Amino acid sequence: MDVHKRIGWNLRRLRKEREITQEDFATDSGFDRGYISGVERGVRNPSVKVLVRIADALKVDVAELFDAEKATEFAGRHHVEA
Fold first, then answer.
1. Does the residue 82 lie in any domain?
2. Domain interval for residue 47
3. Distance CA 55, CA 73 (A)
4. What is the pLDDT of residues 28-74, one digit of tens each?
5. Residue 20 maps to which CATH number?
């Protein structure tokens, strides 16, 4: 799985686990909803600083955003090609 898609799937997984809408997450973390959507879809190339801000907002270590196994599993449960 491409690293951008992996980050996106993990962001979506972590956000859904916390039952946070994309809009609420964007507002609470200081990002535009469209930007968060792009990260989740794997079409944005977030900087390390942005990834740290996202991880901090989710209260996880930034490494959690790179977890290939969890991203693939989550994508598979949502019937989307990883």
1. no
2. 3-77
3. 20
4. 899 999 999 999 999 999 999 999 999 999 999 999 999 999 999 99
5. 1.10.260.40
Looking at this protein, which amino acid is placed at residue 45?
N
User: How many independent structural domains does the chain possess?
Assistant: 1
Integer Cα distance of 30 and 66 in angstroms: 21
Kindly state whether residue 9 falls inside one of the protein's structural domains. yes
pLDDT at 1: 86
This model's pTM is above 0.70? yes
**Residues whose CB is less than 8 angstroms from the CB of residue 10 and which lie 6 or more positions away in sequence, other chains included:** 64, 65, 66, 67, 70, 71, 74
Round to whole Å and give the CA distance between 22 and 45. Answer: 18
